[in-house]
């Protein structure tokens, strides 16, 4: 190989990579509106981002996985601990982390700024980011359900059935509510797919159904609970 | 030293060294905060976030000073001419230092842009840009006037211009957090896996050529292939940061494939360094400088090549993303690729500027080995903590602080090894600032 050939390797390699990269950048800009729900990117959300930057939150916490690793990731913080949970921790960290060996500074953030940040976190939490972080993934069972599976030895679907309060209305083997039909033999009447459909949106199956749609179930939870019921 | 203006480099290096020591001091505070409880009253006035902003900005500042100093040293020899304006070079040094100090003090009072690694407030960014323009102007004019182009010069200038351009993408306020991270990585990734690789490959090629006496034709041929591969893999490889930010799904493919190839140019650099050292045409005079060169090539491969590769595929990155695994890689890569490169340049140039032909390298040797071993251990401890975190928090889905409590032992180990690292740094910094001729061996 001569120096001249080496130079051409350099030039063509660079151009090839840059073309791929810039083309994908162009396309990313076109898709990002949908992926990040730009229609919901309100002034309040932007104000929240400014407050987030003003207090340098990102040099302790990651968001979308980037930043510092001293505090928990904030991508899905609203889904995880709720809006009140977020407000309380920013407003009074001394109390919120009284028992923790790691402290969060009290930065005297104004109430309006806290409200803005909550809006910002809520918006970030809904970005379609290939389901990261895994601990907040919709593909997993909640922490309580996992504990039941691990310690009591029930099937994941049974754990969901128990933890999500299905038994407030339905009964199994005589235990549970009487407001709705007992489900002891539901598996003989309905297929797995039918159960999934019903739980997600009862009215789509029976317009007169009184059961509320179980919207807060994650995909994984729905799948597990349907599997469990169809086996009865 | 053949040209008077090469002396400029000395002051850049001398300014960089204390900043390096200060960076490590703040790093120790960070490791301490991970392990022990810092009381609320202190956290309220000096949060972790402030210390981290200082730690990372000091890193960037001292390394950029090193690159600039390196450039001022190399360009006269390469162009066979003096730097266009020494006055501008000194002015620019003072401006950069003043900006740096203003930024660091500002952080203490909460004056920040609030984006990781890019905390320097926007008004100061403008000063940085002006300083960069002066620097580029000074260097470019020198090269253009001399008109003796070489691949090393071209790579150096190209890398520096690329570096400066990328900085611009970090200045605006982006309303959309997704877009914000998209361009944040144009600065961070395209710096360390693009522009900085070019600059350091050029500096490295120069020093290696001078040390080993291998012909320019050979060195520069390798240089082209390496920077070609760096840019081919590194530009589209930026995609390995776009997996989980809300960018389209094809980035998993682009980022995964291109970045998995990123170790290749680093491996090539290691191979050609070994070959040149083996086929050297000159005797080894200052052994420590050679040790730094070989050490840098090996450590670059470990920290950036191996450690980077380990978590660059999306299937793995899904679990390690944003954990101490990232930290482990960040430390080994920056130390291996850029800290050692800069220190090698300092050990190459500073004795020559001072007119010391053979320098006494007793202290320096200890400094080198203490730093290298301590940093390797730190990298391993961060790595263990990171694997624990990925498993406990990400796979098992347990709480953040639960995971942290399992990691505490390892973060504590980082702190204690960090103290050793600091000792190595202090030794090295003092040694470089007070170089003396070796005693003639009887
Ligand atoms: C000398 C070269 C390099 C340096 C100095 C370097 C430094 C860093 C730093 C500091 C980060 C963390 C940034 C942050 O989130 O705050 C990072 C992230 C990363 N680096 Fe490198 N790197 C280098 C080369 C490489 C190479 C060659 C690869 C791949 C083969 C690589 C793969 C990665 C990946 C995958 C991440 C993202 C980690 C995450 O998920 O957050 N790096 N690098
Ligand atoms: Fe990268």
Explain this structure.
The complex is a heterodimer of chains A (232) and B (442). In chain A, strand 1 and strand 2 (66-67) form a beta hairpin. Chain A contains 11 helices and 4 strands, in the order ααββαααααββαααα. In chain A, the strands form 2 sheets. A two-stranded antiparallel ribbon of chain A has the order 1-2. Chain A is extended and about 80 Å long. In chain A, helix 3 packs antiparallel against helix 5. Chain A has 2 domains: 42-129, Orthogonal Bundle (Cytochrome Bc1 Complex, Chain D, domain 2), CATH 1.10.760; 138-230, Cytochrome Bc1 Complex, Chain D, domain 2. Chain A is 54% helix and 3% strand. With 232 residues, chain A is mainly alpha-helical. Chain B folds into 3 domains: 1-148; 155-283, no CATH class; 307-442, no CATH class. Chain B starts with 6 loop residues before the first helix and ends in a 9-residue tail after the last helix. The chains are: A mainly alpha (232), B mainly alpha (442). The interface between A and B is large, with 74 and 85 residues. Residues 116, 188, 192-193, 240-241, 259, 262-263, 304-305, 308-309, 311-312, 317, 321-322, 326, 329-330, 333-334, 337 of chain B line the site of protoporphyrin IX containing FE (HEM). Protoporphyrin IX containing FE binds at residues 116, 188, 192-193, 240-241, 259, 262-263, 304-305, 308-309, 311-312, 317, 321-322, 326, 329-330, 333-334, 337 of chain B.
């Amino acid at each position: 190989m001569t120096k001249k050939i080496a130079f051409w390797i350099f030039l063509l390699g660079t151009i090839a990579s840059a073309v791929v990269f810039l083309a994908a950048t162009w396309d990313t800009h076109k898709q990002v509106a949908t992926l990040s729900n730009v229609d919901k990117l309100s002034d309040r959300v932007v104000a929240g981002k400014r407050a987030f930057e003003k207090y340098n939150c990102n040099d302790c916490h990651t968001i979308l996985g980037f930043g510092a690793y001293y505090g928990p990731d904030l991508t899905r913080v609203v889904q995880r601990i709720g809006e009140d949970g977020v407000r309380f921790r920013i407003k009074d960290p001394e109390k919120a982390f009284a028992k923790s060996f790691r402290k969060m500074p009290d930065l005297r953030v104004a109430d309006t700024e806290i409200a803005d940040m909550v809006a910002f976190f809520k918006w970030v939490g809904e970005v379609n980011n290939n389901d990261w972080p895994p601990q907040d993934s919709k593909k997993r069972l909640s922490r309580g359900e996992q504990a039941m599976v691990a310690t009591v030895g029930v099937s994941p679907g049974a754990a969901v059935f128990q933890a999500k309060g299905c038994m407030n209305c339905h009964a199994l083997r005589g235990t549970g509510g009487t407001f709705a039909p007992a489900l002891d033999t539901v598996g003989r009447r309905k297929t797995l797919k039918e159960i999934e459909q019903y739980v997600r949106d009862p009215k789509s199956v029976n317009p007169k159904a009184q059961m509320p749609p179980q919207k807060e179930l994650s995909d994984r939870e729905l799948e597990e609970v349907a599997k469990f019921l169809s086996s009865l | 030293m053949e040209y008077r203006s090469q002396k400029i480099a000395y002051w850049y290096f001398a300014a960089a060294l204390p900043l390096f020591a200060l960076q490590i001091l703040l790093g120790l505070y960070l490791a301490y905060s991970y392990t022990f409880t810092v009381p609320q009253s202190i956290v309220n006035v000096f949060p972790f976030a402030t210390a981290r902003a200082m730690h990372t900005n000091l890193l960037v500042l001292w390394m950029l000073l090193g690159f600039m100093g390196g450039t001022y040293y190399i360009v006269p020899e390469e162009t066979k001419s003096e730097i266009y304006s020494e006055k501008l070079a000194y002015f620019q040094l003072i401006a950069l230092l003043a900006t740096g100090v203003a930024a660091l003090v500002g952080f203490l009072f909460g004056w920040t842009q609030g984006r990781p690694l890019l905390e320097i407030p926007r008004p100061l960014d403008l000063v940085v840009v002006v300083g960069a323009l002066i620097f580029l102007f000074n260097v470019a004019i020198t090269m253009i006037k001399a008109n003796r182009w070489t691949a090393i010069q071209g790579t150096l200038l190209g890398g520096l211009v690329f570096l400066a351009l990328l900085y611009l993408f970090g200045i605006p306020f982006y309303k959309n957090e997704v877009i914000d991270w998209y361009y944040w990585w144009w600065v961070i990734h395209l710096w360390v896996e693009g522009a900085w690789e070019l600059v350091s490959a050029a500096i490295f090629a120069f020093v290696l050529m001078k040390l080993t006496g291998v012909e320019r034709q050979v060195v520069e041929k390798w240089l082209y292939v390496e920077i070609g591969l760096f840019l081919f893999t590194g530009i589209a490889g930026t995609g390995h940061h776009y997996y989980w930010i809300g960018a389209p799904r094809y980035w998993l493919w682009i980022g995964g494939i291109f970045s998995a190839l990123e170790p290749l140019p680093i491996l090539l650099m290691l191979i050609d360094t070994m070959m040149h050292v083996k086929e050297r045409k000159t005797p080894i005079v200052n052994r420590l400088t050679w040790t730094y060169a070989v050490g840098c090539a090996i450590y670059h491969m470990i920290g950036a090549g191996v450690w980077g590769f380990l978590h660059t595929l999306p299937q793995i990155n899904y679990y390690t993303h944003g954990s101490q695994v990232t930290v482990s890689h960040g430390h080994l890569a920056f130390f291996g690729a850029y800290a050692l490169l800069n220190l090698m340049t300092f050990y190459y140039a500073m004795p020559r500027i001072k007119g010391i032909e053979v320098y006494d390298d007793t202290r320096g040797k200890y400094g080198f080995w203490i730093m290298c071993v301590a940093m390797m251990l730190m990298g391993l401890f961060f790595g263990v903590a990171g694997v624990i975190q990925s498993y406990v928090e990400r796979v098992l889905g347990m709480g953040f602080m639960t995971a942290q409590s399992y990691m505490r032992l390892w973060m504590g180990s980082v702190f204690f090894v960090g103290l050793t690292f600091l000792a190595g740094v202090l030794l090295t910094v003092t040694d470089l600032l007070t170089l003396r001729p070796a005693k003639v061996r009887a």
